[in-house]
Each structure stands twice: as structure tokens, then as C-alpha cells.
């Protein structure tokens, strides 16, 4: 069984939006993660100068099953190999070190994403996509990459899909959606102006809206009907663009796609076989044409 983790990440990301008593609790837990593992609800309330009721409310605010769930997650966090304090690249460092640093950060981001992705929200997203007449993906900048990847995937299983990376084009598409359509807005920060506007327009048109943002409350996630999330891990300072965040977004898209494929397994296999055969036929025709040209 996979060890539950992600408790400390949940607390760090939610701290600033918690009520005062829960924020006080979060600060105590973050400062004393090892101690709370052996505490009861009432003992934690006394130690943090709050109350047992505040502990229960905190667990609800974090969407956890209860205090035991929080303790298990924090225990898993403590058991995880500590991360190096400096994971940014250095001038002229050996490529072997760069490989290790980039890989470590990517793996950590994917693991945190798996820990923070809520099953009930994913189930709702799968239900919506399976029932959708059309799926419209929207993302700008680095978030356009997972949007384009998602469209390509769902087209392969005969799901009518569009992708847009420009606000004007996206608005044109979403202006004509209806209750049978799904609109997916992708933004790591959750504060991207263009994505927020697309979700607002889709809501006004009655479509089902899904957001894919980093964990925590944001402008985009607040107005979306279904919220999918990735690890909030920050990128290294030295970067040419989103790296780990892009991998995490692609990972969630893969999970969503595989979940939909599992739900309609037989038809998915049929469509995938058909698309694979079509591509192979095109490639064979191209190769034959090349060979014929070479012979001539």
C-alpha cells in the first residue's frame, strides 16, 4: 500500500486562507510535525492553545477524513528523503549534477501531485468528460502545452475536442457552448486573466467547467465547478520556462485521459486501433513514395 503523504504541503498552501484558530494550529503543526504524530485531538488542541474542535475544523478545511488522516500524511512526509537545500543549477556544473537536480525536482512534483489530486474531483471530471458532447481546452503560455496534449489525446478516442491559446479565439469558441459541453481552463498559478475570463464565459453559457491549477484557492479554481490540482512546488529560479509544473499538468491530463479510457474501455480500444491504423497507413504510403522516388 502506498504511504499517504502531502499533509505538510496542504498546511503550507492553505495556511493563509484559514480562520485564525486553524491558522494557529497549522503554524504549530508545521513547527512540530514529529510531535503531533503521537498526539490525540485534545492534546493537540491544548498544546497549540486552541481546541479539539479547532483540530476537527482544520481537517475539514483541508478536505481530509479526520485527524488520523492528517497524522498519517504528516508521518509519510517526515519519512520522505529530505530535499537538498539548493536544487538550482550552478555555473558550469557537471551535467551529471544537472540530471540529478532536474530529475529529483520532477519526481518530487509528480509525487506531490498524486498526493494532492482529490479522487472525488477527478471522478466528477471523468463523469463530465464521458458525458460531454464537446470538450474545449484553454491555456496560455506554458499551460498551452498540456492543453494541446489533452486535445490530441481525446481526439484519438473520438471525443470532439478543441484547443485555444488565445483569448479572442477561446472566447469565440466558448461563446457557443452549452450544458452538454465541458470547458477546461489550465493555469498553474490559477490567476491567469485569460483563463479566468474563459471560465467565467463558460459558466454563463451553462457549460461544465474544470480547472487545472496548483493546489490551493485561486481566482480560477474558485469559479470552476470541478477543481483538479497539481503540486504547488515552486520552479527553480534559473529556468527558461515552466518545467516541473508543466510535467505535473501533463500528468493530471494523462490520469484524466486514462480514467476516461477505463470507463469506456471497449470503445476506447476500438478508436485507438483505428487511429493507429490510419497513421500507419499514411506512414507506409509516404515510405513507399520515397522508395519509388529513389528508384526513379
Structure in words:
The protein is of the alpha/beta class. It folds into 3 domains: about 5-80, Winged helix-like DNA-binding domain superfamily/Winged helix DNA-binding domain (Arc Repressor Mutant, subunit A, Orthogonal Bundle), CATH 1.10.10.10; about 115-265, Rossmann fold; about 265-295. The protein is about 60% helix and about 10% strand. It contains 14 helices and 5 strands. It has helices at about 5-15, 20-30, 35, 40-45, 50-60, 65-80, 95-115, 120-130, 145-155, 165-175, 195-205, 220-225, 245-265, 265-295, and strands at about 135-140, 160-165, 180-185, 210-215, 225-230. It has a 5-stranded parallel beta sheet with strand order 2-1-3-4-5, sandwiched between helices. Helix 9 links the parallel strand 1 and strand 2 (about 160-165). The longest helix has about 30 residues, at about 265-295. The radius of gyration is 23 Å and the shape is globular. The termini are far apart.
Amino acid at each position: 500500500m502506498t504511504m499517504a503523504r502531502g499533509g505538510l504541503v496542504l498546511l503550507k498552501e492553505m495556511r493563509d486562507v484559514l480562520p485564525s484558530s486553524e491558522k494557529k494550529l497549522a503554524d504549530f503543526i508545521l513547527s512540530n510535525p514529529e510531535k503531533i504524530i503521537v498526539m490525540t485531538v485534545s492534546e493537540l488542541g491544548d498544546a497549540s492553545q486552541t481546541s479539539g474542535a479547532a483540530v476537527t475544523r482544520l481537517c475539514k478545511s483541508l478536505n481530509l477524513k479526520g485527524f488520523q488522516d492528517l497524522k498519517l500524511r504528516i508521518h509519510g512526509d517526515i519519512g520522505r528523503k529530505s530535499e537538498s537545500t539548493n536544487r538550482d543549477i550552478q555555473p558550469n556544473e557537471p551535467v551529471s549534477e544537472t540530471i540529478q537536480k532536474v530529475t529529483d525536482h520532477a519526481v518530487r512534483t509528480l509525487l506531490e501531485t498524486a498526493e494532492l489530486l482529490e479522487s472525488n474531483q477527478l471522478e466528477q471530471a471523468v463523469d463530465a468528460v464521458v458525458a460531454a458532447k464537446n470538450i474545449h481546452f484553454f491555456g496560455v503560455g506554458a499551460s498551452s502545452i498540456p492543453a494541446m496534449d489533452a486535445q490530441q489525446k481525446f481526439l484519438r478516442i473520438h471525443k470532439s475536442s478543441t484547443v485555444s491559446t488565445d483569448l479572442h479565439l477561446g472566447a469565440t469558441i466558448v461563446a457557443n457552448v452549452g450544458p452538454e459541453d465541458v470547458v477546461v481552463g489550465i493555469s498553474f498559478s490559477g490567476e491567469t486573466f485569460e483563463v479566468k475570463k474563459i471560465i467565467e464565459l463558460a459558466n454563463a453559457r451553462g457549460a461544465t467547467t474544470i480547472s487545472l491549477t496548483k493546489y490551493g484557492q485561486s481566482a480560477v479554481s474558485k469559479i470552476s465547478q470541478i477543481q483538479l490540482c497539481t503540486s504547488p512546488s515552486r520552479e527553480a529560479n534559473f529556468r527558461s520556462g515552466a518545467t516541473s509544473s508543466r510535467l505535473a499538468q501533463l500528468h493530471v491530463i494523462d490520469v484524466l485521459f486514462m480514467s476516461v479510457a477505463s470507463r469506456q474501455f471497449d470503445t476506447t480500444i476500438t478508436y485507438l486501433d483505428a487511429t493507429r491504423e490510419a497513421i500507419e497507413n499514411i506512414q507506409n504510403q509516404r515510405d513507399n513514395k520515397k522508395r519509388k522516388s529513389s528508384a526513379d
